[in-house]
Amino acid sequence: MQWRGRRGSQNVEDRRGMGGKGVALGGVGGIAGVIILLLVMFMGGDPSSVTPAPESPGSGLTQEQQDDAAKFVSVVLADTEEVWRTEFRKMNRTYDEARLVLFDGYVETACGSASSDTGPFYCPGDQTVYIDLGFFTQLSQRFGAPGDFAQAYVIAHEIGHHVQQQLGILDAVHTRQRRVSQREANELSVRLELQADFFAGIWAHYADKKLGVVERGDLQEALNAATAIGDDKIQKEGQGYAVPDTFTHGTSAQRMRWFKLGYDTGDVQRGDTFQTSRL
């Protein structure tokens, strides 16, 4: 991805080194922590009530690498802002930009306290994406999805949740989840995540077709990342088998398919995961 020397976003807040102690949003690592986070938030629970996570293992990056990664995040965020401002204008809406906080260790949010083990997440309470840059090392080494475009996909996915917040989708789904069974609530969570993947694909479409920053192999990096963090793959690797009724993010095939649909079409209207049966 061509990102060096390009404009960064003004909406990045750097809280690295501020760490501190707190109660984590999830007591497990990486993407699995995001699954717990979303379930707690959308079921109306108190995120701070979740079992504390162990001490963060650290980023595994040198200071120079972290600063380079921070610049990269800022550029990708700026690209998402440009894309979604344009898309919202097409809908006769105004896109209110999200903020993005870089942290390490622990961070305080409007959704409660979070640890690095939670992985990247979006908090609708303060309309902010939170990222510990060390997750990018996990994405490459633990999940087997290296590359800058894989990292950009993660950022664009979290911004996809902000788009859902702006469109009123998160509040609507939150309300529905509180009225249905756990299985049905999980299915709604899957639909949210697949739509966020679709919105990430919309970003990738315009990053390629309009901004011209996508290089050979970038798309495959994003698809590898989508595949790597599917519920079925994570569960099989963690416990040897998958339990579909407990899925909250979607299978590898689903995540890859919805991202690819967004990339191929560039059409926001094709991303309605709540009124179709294309799961």
Strand content: 5-15%
Helix content: 40-55%
Strand order within the widest sheet? 1-2-6-5
**Biggest sheet details:** 4 strands, mixed
Based on secondary structure, the structural category is: alpha/beta
Task: Please name the defining characteristics of this protein.
alpha/beta; 8% strand; two-stranded antiparallel ribbon; 50% helix; 279 residues; 9 helices; four-stranded mixed sheet
Give the helices and strands, then pairings:
Blueprint: E1 12-14, H1 30-42, H2 63-90, E2 99-102, E3 106-109, E4 112-115, E5 121-123, E6 128-131, H3 134-141, H4 148-166, H5 169-177, H6 182-209, H7 218-228, H8 231-239, H9 252-265
Parallel strand pairs: 1-2, 2-6
Antiparallel strand pairs: 3-4, 5-6
Helix pairs in contact: 2-4, 2-6, 4-6, 4-7, 5-6, 6-9, 7-9
Task: Walk me through this protein's architecture.
Residues 20-58 have low confidence and may be disordered. The protein has one domain (12-271). It is globular and about 50 Å long. The protein has 279 residues and is α/β, with parallel strands linked by helices. It is 50% helix and 8% strand. The longest helix has 28 residues, at 63-90.
Structure at a glance:
The protein has 279 residues and is an alpha/beta fold.
